[in-house]
């Protein structure tokens, strides 16, 4: 980690910048795949699965017997752990469901909003060596709670054409049964445009590599919504004198092991804590199975000494981290200083992995500075809020004249007429 | 309007399609303007304002004396009308502010969310012959209520270099004082990248022509958020036997007068109501100042006879209209059938123009079928929801083992370590 001591504020902007990648070639390639799937549907899906996932599938749809087999091959201890996480995630996301009051803005004029689940949603779960079943909980549980009628899941098969049993277990547990063996940009295209086998959805959720991310960005132009724009995962730890260096180091490393492009930042007003955390990082790094990946991420990471805790928060708000850990016994007092962050972990015992898996908060969060203008995934991400209004005759008589004057001033005569014709009919009664 | 009688369901998809436009040339032109403003800042702004708005400005910033002059030149009756609208919009949007409970998902594990206003937001108000001051209320009021610290407004000057007094009055009324004389794609670029005069913002709101819409679409790739994707404005009216043809016609026309590309659809299960509404449209059209525009919009519009009210709602949900008027005495009973719509107007006295101006609901709504996966602008559009969590020692002991098992199964050892190191420290106490 690069150590920076008391950088002047003019230098902060550079310190908060994320690396930028040239994307022209990527865009072209992904757009080609999208167009191909739009035109050739399942045929294109089978072709790209053979090309990228190295398996010639007969079927895209995961069968009931495959799910049944998975149920028996997941260990009891993992099942129990997943059940604990599910209960907490369910409890927190269910609490986000609001029934709003009807507001009478003027006598006879009632306005309200209703939350309605988005009809059809698609979840994407990346492949790779490890099964990222936790993301199924984070997306599937709120989708179910929101009342989405059709929830489908796409995830790439391994070379034997199978999906990891933990993925199937988690999906089945949250009630998702339409699972398709397809990954990458082709999976996003399939959900955006629909194929003979895979239904079209209105909104797509979930993480992925650069191809998936680019595909999600591009399909928005064709009317499909996405959860949020994405970038590499990141953590910023603010530590004061009451932070615990070994804990801090473990949190920095749990972010660093995600990928070589992970962003890891430690800011502190205490030089000793900073120093000790850095040597703890070196110590703990040695025994990690994903040491090489973590090491690469740490090369781009920064440990920054600042003058005060307040300055630490000022820096953090400018950075707008996906995850913000406040490593301090006074974390709760500092919480009010947070202006830009995806999810905040208060105190020495609130490690990021708690929120990644089981505390109940969602782990699909805005990266890349998007915490300045985006929220993480929540129940509302799977809903629309529809506004309703009802005017009685009296209500229209109360606000109608104001509408007539405003419409006239905006030179929209037909807008005015819609009121006038109604008010006149009431005069004649 | 094109009349369609009892179309088979296979034909519905075509009937719900919006016209598509080729955008390649537009994209190139707008991208050029964006890049130019990003590089040359104010200099580029002055250049494009001279080119497109035909005025060589000395200053972009609207001065206090210009605002003061506007205050006195708006009629008292318009001021009063705007004040009535403001009160209703404020009342409804203030009711959207929620303080959420802290949820203890497991003993010692507390999770909650906090609404925080987006620091810096930019509002865009189009120019043209008429001053669209109503949109300032719809965007400025929730921005203020949300606690956004910096709210700026961009709107193009007329050929004399002035902004219409009604715009300045409405802006001043809602507390917006940073107003800049700039329109088109160059205004969006200025707010996305910042110039010497115009501050950079994190999210941009507001309607506009195709250049503005394209610019908003493109600047998202550089990290600026926008309110929602946009298309031409639209209304769908569902009328049953208790609908009133002259009212229905006035609503169809108030949508049609917006622009030649406006989408206007009437569906009914009553052939007589449909027929009478169509002749009322012809009658009312004759006296409209914007007759030519409305007529063009009506050429692309449809009046569809269906077999039942339920079928009307099925069609409407597939179309997903921006505005849905339920022209029926039983509108409230039907409200539950609405699955996809931006804003719904219940009953014969709830005309769309009520919601456009003064009932209290927002008029910035999803068009182009986006009501399937987007909500209209609300207080939340100007906020982020930040999640917080706090685990006590006991809390970590309660869920820690589950996290360890899940992290191990996802092969993320450092995630597990962050828990283990803390649990071990507690064993040693």
Automatic annotation (TrEMBL), chains A, B:
Binding site for Zn(2+): 255, 258, 356, 415
Cofactor binding description: Binds 1 zinc ion per subunit.
Cofactor: Zn(2+)
GO biological process, one term: L-histidine biosynthetic process
Job of this protein: Catalyzes the sequential NAD-dependent oxidations of L-histidinol to L-histidinaldehyde and then to L-histidine.
Binding site residues for substrate: 233, 255, 258, 323, 356, 410, 415
UniProt protein name: Histidinol dehydrogenase
Enzyme category, top tier: oxidoreductase
Active-site residues per Swiss-Prot or TrEMBL entry: 322 (proton acceptor), 323 (proton acceptor)
Keywords, in A-Z order: Amino-acid biosynthesis, Histidine biosynthesis, Metal-binding, NAD, Oxidoreductase, Zinc
Pathway: Amino-acid biosynthesis; L-histidine biosynthesis; L-histidine from 5-phospho-alpha-D-ribose 1-diphosphate: step 9/9
Binding of NAD(+), residues: 124, 186, 209
Family affiliation: Belongs to the histidinol dehydrogenase family.
MF terms (GO), sorted A to Z: histidinol dehydrogenase activity; NAD binding; zinc ion binding
CC terms in the record's Gene Ontology section: cytosol
Catalyzed reactions: L-histidinol + 2 NAD(+) + H2O = L-histidine + 2 NADH + 3 H(+)
InterPro entries tied to this protein: Ald_DH/histidinol_DH, Histidinol_DH_CS, Histidinol_DH_monofunct, Hstdl_DH
CDD domains: Histidinol_dh
HAMAP family on file: HisD
One Pfam entry name: Histidinol_dh
